[in-house]
Amino acid sequence: MTRPPGAGRFAPSPSADLHIGNLRTAVLAWLFARSTGRRFLIRVEDLDDRTFDDVAARQLHDLAAIGVTADEAPEYQTAHTARYDSVIDSLTERGLVYECFCSRKDILSAPRAPHAPEGAYPGTCRDLTDAERAERRAGGRPPALRLRSDVDEFTVSDVQHGTYTGVVDDLVLRRGDGVPAYNLAVVVDDAAQGVDQVVRGDDLLPSSPRQAYLATLLGHAVPEYAHVPLVLNAEGKRLAKRDGAVTLSEIGIEQALAQIAASLGFTATTAEAMLAEFDPVRLPREPWIYHAGGQ
Ligand code: GLU
Questions:
Q1: pLDDT-derived band at 218, boundaries 50, 70, 90
Q2: Which of 200, 210, 239 to mutate to test the pocket of ligand 1 (most atoms within 8 A of CB)?
Q3: Which keywords belong to this entry (predicted)?
Q4: Of the residues 30, 88, 103, 215, which has the maximum number of CB atoms within 10 A of its CB?
Q5: For residue 162, is pLDDT > 80?
Q6: How far apart are CA 236 and CA 282, in angstroms?
């Protein structure tokens, strides 16, 4: 029996038009998948941004325009809420979920272990008694659901970064407003879609141990990771739309592809032709500094 090939993916949140940095990451995700015989998928991560349909449509249009083509129709997370519900139910049955009544401010001001990074959950609501929980519920604030994790850290391997160990706290599975949390949705969707290669910006590297741990807990294989350098503006800050002249409609397709190719050291200027020159080992390790409006 032949096994179906695994898949890579690009998973934009439809919060704003894709800028040249996002497009470059998408090209890289496509190159990683295609060069390893994987399928390539696009997933619209619209749990948070469900009102921005036109943005999603423009993102899909821009990806197609630069040759980042998917093998299947794009999947929208809001179409799969039952998927997240059933995973949270199964974790609840295993005794691995608890209600958390903390605000962000509570978490930031709570004492934390010496090496825990800012924002890591200190476990405040982990061992509330039934009475304490009833009292907090009566307080009116709808609780978030957190995972009762039994490790403090987890190690992943990354094509770009080698072995990476990072914090695993009691991560949020469902937010207080009822929306499935990013870390849960990403893990559940990647597994459901057969994604075994995750290529994305290296701002998400610190999230990968949490996601890999959750995948393991759910009985899924951990995908291969490649966290690629971000694109920065002339001030060395993360590129943003306000930097001006950074989206495909502002730059133009040909020019954008030429800039992406140059930044990756390719002479080819279409996604298809870049495939022949692609070698992950030779990818730049440093952020690309982008001078909007003129290179
Ligand atoms: N939707 C996330 C973002 O746009 C990316 C998620 C992922 O690639 O895992 O930042």
A1: very high
A2: 200
A3: Aminoacyl-tRNA synthetase, ATP-binding, Ligase, Metal-binding, Nucleotide-binding, Protein biosynthesis, Zinc
A4: 30
A5: yes
A6: 23
Residue 15 Cα: closest atom of ligand 1: 4
What's the whole-model pTM score?
0.94
Question: What is the tens place of the pLDDT at every residue in 4-19?
Answer: 689 999 999 999 999 9
The pLDDT value recorded for residue 87 is 98
Question: By C-alpha distance, which of 126, 162, 177 is closest to 147?
Answer: 126
Q: Is the pLDDT of residue 294 over 60?
A: no
**What are the pLDDT digits (tens) for 113-132?**
666 777 789 999 999 999 99
Q: Which atom of ligand 1 is nearest to the CA of 190?
A: 9
Distance of alpha carbon 92 from the chain centroid: 24
Cα–Cα distance for residue pair 202/195, rounded to 1 Å:
18
The full set of domains in the chain, from first to last, is 7-73+229-289 (3.40.50.620), 83-174 (3.90.800.10)
Ligand 1 mean position to 13 CA, how many Å? 6
Q: Which of 250, 224, 226 is nearest to 239 (CA)?
A: 250
Question: Measured between alpha carbons, how far is residue 104 from residues 108, 132, 176, 239 in Å?
Answer: 6, 20, 11, 26
What residue has token string 């290179």? 295
Q: Return the number of other C-beta atoms located less than 10 Å from residue 193's C-beta.
A: 17
Give me the mean pLDDT over the 197-217 stretch: 97
Encoded tokens for 206: 């610190």
Look up residue 200 and give its amino acid. R
Q: What are the C-alpha distances in Å from 218 to residues 24, 80, 87, 133? A: 32, 17, 8, 27
For residue 66, which amino acid is it? I
52: pLDDT strictly greater than 70? no
Count helices and strands in the chain by DSSP H and E runs? 10, 12
Structure tokens at 9: 């993916």
Mean pLDDT of 88-100: 98
